[in-house]
Each structure stands twice: as structure tokens, then as C-alpha cells.
Amino acid sequence: MSQERNISGFVLRKLHSLAGIIPLGLFLAFHLLANGAVLLSPLHYLVVIQTMMNLPGLVFLEIFIIFLPLLLHALMGMYIVVTGRNNPHKYGYFRNWMFFFQRLSGVIIFIFLIWHLFSIKFGGLDAPSMIYALQGQISSPFGMILYIATMLSVSFHFCNGLWGFAINWGILSGMRAQKYFGYICIVLFVILAFFWLSVMFGFVA
Amino acid sequence: MENVIQLKIKRQDSPEAKPYWEEFAIPYKENLNIISLLQYIQQNPVNAKGETVTPVVYESNCLEEVCGACSMVINGIARQACSALVDQLQQPITLEPLDKFKIVRDLMVDRTALFEALTRVKAWVEIDGTYDLGPGPKDFSLNQEIRYNFSRCMSCGCCAQSCPNYTLLGSFLGPHAVGQAYLFNLHPVGKNLASDRYEALMNKGGIMECGNSQNCVRACPKSIPLTSSLAELKRKVTWHAVKSIFVK
Ligand code: SF4
Ligand code: SF4
Ligand code: FES
User: Fold this and answer.
1) C-beta of residue B86 within 8 angstroms of C-beta of residue B39
2) Model confidence band, residue A53 (pLDDT cutoffs 50, 70, 90)
3) Which fold has domain A2-202?
4) Residue A121: CA atoms inside 13 Å, Cβ hemisphere, count?
């Protein structure tokens, strides 16, 4: 009964879990901080964006730290979504709901990112027009809903993903440890969601 | 109490046939379990409309929740029919086959996949040889206690049924196989095959198919700490994978 060795699925899933934290989680934190400058003043925001746009080796960083890991994480994630069979309506346990929301938030972020990347990132905008474009998007009713949903999704997906990462890499194996780390992740979610939403409303204020 | 028990059963005449629901009304008695209802139908195969039908096919064996043969989906949740007491269930009681396995007929499914998964992870202690190996090594009671928990697995399939990542067409071994790999890796002789088991858990359908929904541990009628074994083995298999890059 010996099977042919095929560990590509194993490696891809491990990398999927890792990529969500390093580098994507770090990028997320960075993205939040950079955009957070808007809470100080639009001018601060402009300075930060301008500085970043002039960063040496920016394209290299973007490709290797953001796009490739993001592509892996997103495609693998979608594969996981379509091959699974969610059942929280039958097995309505807390963790099963979290499992379901992890997939739902992933899909929301996926849709959002396609829009966000093509309209803002590759929109050929300079820093000042970026503010206007973001303002325009956020203040339309549809945009507002999608933005709020995404800010919550991103915060949730990261925090719950952190919990999953800790298990997938065998850092937390005891049931008690997993439970308490779950609580920590909830607190982290509340904090992150608060900041993301403040930044988002910072653009329209 | 009502004087009839309302029962709805999802039936299927053959593996390829279309499933359909059939209702039964069974005279109430105290302390019945689901198997007693199915036995009643065997003797009186008459549905709620009064039509004579073929008796409902199901499997059972031990009648004391140790063999796992009678697992089915009762009111939406996978469990053993022999230990599901009618007096504790909401009516109408619905019975469905475990749909993560090939359906043979009515409530009877083919659980071969569960046993195949056990052979993939070599869930046994290898003692075959050309000469008498003598008595096995002694084991500490602390280790025995941990092993005892996992040894109660009856391959019933409730964990697999509840697992969002265990599907009929997918290749995932299932939570029970991970628990059994863990059990035999703790055994003083069984652990000789530990690296074979890590290999199986790394292979297609292996341990990383698990997405930590933790349904399995809640669904297991034997309260086996499956999620701990999943996380422990995720770590061990990672080490094994890293090590195999350098030593192979
Ligand atoms: S914890 Fe893993 S193995 Fe258990 S039910 Fe969830 S996905 Fe399946
Ligand atoms: S681990 Fe529990 S639920 Fe799964 S097959 Fe074994 S006894 Fe059944
Ligand atoms: S008949 Fe053995 S578990 Fe129910």
C-alpha cells in the first residue's frame, strides 16, 4: 500500500499558512501604519506616500514581499475554500464558525483586492490624487459597505489566521493553550478593527 | 408523552439511485433507542401513510457504542444509533446516512475509506519477524494513560463526517487516522515506524488538509483529544520534513 511520494500539497499549505503571517501580516501592519498618517493630517499622509514611492528597490520589495506571497496565499486560499464543505449550520460550534468566517473574510478580501489594486495601486495615480480616489470610493454607498466589510474581514482574517498559524506550525498543541490564545486573538481583532476603521473614516473626514 | 414517535429517514435504494425521504410513525414506548426503532421497522415495514415498504437497511453490531457500525446522522449530527435515546431527541427524528462515504443502501454506508486511511498511516505495531522477539519493552503509566484515550477509537467516522475538509472526493486521511498515527507513535514498539507515519501524513491527503475547525474533537463519541494530536503531529511532521531535506 505504499503511495507515491507527493508532498506538494503539504508544502503549499504550510507556505500558505506561513505567508499569511510573514510577510503578509507584516505588510498589513506596515500598510496600516503608513495609512494611519492620514489621521494626523492629509499632509502627513502625502509625505509618507511620497517617501515610499521613492524608496530604492521598491519594485523588488513589492514583487517578493507582497505580490508573490499574496498570489500564493490568495490562490491556495481559494482552492481551500472551494474544496471544503462548510457546516456551521449543523455543527454550530464556536471554532467551526470561526473556520467559516475565515473563508468568508478571505473571499471578501479577495474581491476587494482586485478592485483596490486596479483602481488605486495600478491606477497610475500620484499621491494627492490617491487621496481623492480613496475619498470617492469610500463615500459612495457601495464603496462604504465594501470598505467596512473589508476592514473587518482583514482584521479578522489576520487574527484568526494567527491562531491557525500557531497550530499549523505546531506552536500551540494543548487544548488550554489553544483556548487562551484564541482569547488573545479576539482582543487583537478588536484593536486592529478599531484602527483600520478609524483610518478608513480618516480618509473621508 | 406522545403515543407515536415520528421518524423521517433519508433512503436510497442503491448506490446510484436518487435519495428520498420516508416517514414512519412508531408506537411510543419508554427507553427506546434508534436501533430499536429500526428493528421495529424491520418487523413492521409500513410507512406513515400505511404503505408496505422494504425495511430500512442499516448496520449495527455491538449495541453498546464500541464498534461504530451503527453511525449515522441523527437530527443533523453524526452519532451512534445504539446510544441515541429516543426520549432525548427532538421529534420528528431525522435519520440520514453518513454522506462523506459511499452509500450502499438506506443508512448503510461503505466505510472502507476509514480503514484505508489507517493502513496509509500504518496504524499498527509491527512485530512480524523470523524469530521470537521476546516480551516488549515496559511502558510508563503516564504514557499509557495518554495512549488509552486514543486507543478507544472505533473507526466510527463521526469525526470525518463532521470535518469540513473531509469529503467523498477529497484525499484527506481524516482526523481519526491522525489520532491513530499519534497513538502508535507513542507505543514503545510502534514508534519504530514513526517516520513512515510522518511520511504518510506529509503525503497527498495528509495532515495539512486539516484547517483547524475542531469539529472532530467535539463530534467524537469517545472524547478523543484529536485536536491535540493534530497540532502535535503538525509540529513533528514539520520537523521531519525539514530533517529529511538534510539527511536524505
Ligand atoms: S480540526 Fe481539522 S481534522 Fe478536525 S474537523 Fe477540523 S479540519 Fe477536520
Ligand atoms: S476518533 Fe472518535 S469520532 Fe473519529 S472514528 Fe475514532 S471514535 Fe469515531
Ligand atoms: S452497534 Fe456498535 S456502536 Fe452502535
Assistant:
1) no
2) confident
3) 3 helical TM bundles of succinate and fumarate reductases (1.20.1300)
4) 12
Grid cell at residue A79: 482552492
Predicted pLDDT at A2: 59
Instruction: Name the domain boundary from B84, B110, B136.
Output: B110
Interchain contact A197–B (C-beta under 8 A): no
Q: What is the per-residue pLDDT for B238?
A: 95
C-alpha cell at B85: 435515546
pTM: 0.94
Angstrom distance (rounded) from CA B222 to CA B80: 11
Domain containing B235: what range? 112-246
Considering only CB atoms, which chain B residues are within 8 Å of A176? none
One domain for residues B38 and B74:
yes
**A45-59, A158-172, B25-39, range with the lowest pLDDT:** A45-59
| B123 in the same domain as B43 | no
Residue A146 confidence (pLDDT) above 70? yes
Ligand 1 atom with least separation from CA of B219: 5
Mutation target for A interface from B212, B215, B232: give the one with most A CBs within 10 A.
B212
User: Is the same domain home to B138 and B232?
Assistant: yes
Mean of pLDDT over chain A = 94
Q: Where are the domains of chain A?
A: 2-202
In tens, the pLDDT along B165-214 reads 999 999 999 999 999 999 999 999 999 999 999 999 999 999 999 999 99
Q: Which of B66, B98, B154, B161 to mutate to test the pocket of ligand 2 (most atoms within 8 A of CB)?
A: B154
Q: How far is the CA of A130 from the centre of ligand 1 (A)?
A: 43
Best B214, B227, B245 member to test A by mutation, with max A CBs in 10 Å, is B214
* CB contact A85 to B (< 8 Å): yes
ipTM exceeds 0.90, yes or no: yes
Sign for the pseudo-dihedral over CA of B181, B186, B189, B194: positive
Dump pLDDT digits (tens) for A84-121. Answer: 999 999 999 999 999 999 999 999 999 999 999 999 88
The last residue of one of the domains, among B110, B144, B164, is: B110
B105 shares its domain with B122:
no
Whether the CB-CB separation of B161 and B98 falls below 8 Å is answered with: yes
Beta-strand pair B77-80/B93-96: unpaired
Shared-domain flag, residues B49 and B165: no
H/E stretch holding B41:
helix B34-43
What Cα–Cα distance (Å) separates residue B134 from each residue in A133, B127, B129, B191?
79, 10, 11, 17
* Pocket mutation for ligand 3, best pick of B39, B59, B61, B98 (most atoms within 8 Å of C-beta): B61
pLDDT of A1 over the 60 cut: no
Q: CB–CB of A1 and B208 under 8 A?
A: no
**Number of structural domains chain B divides into:** 2
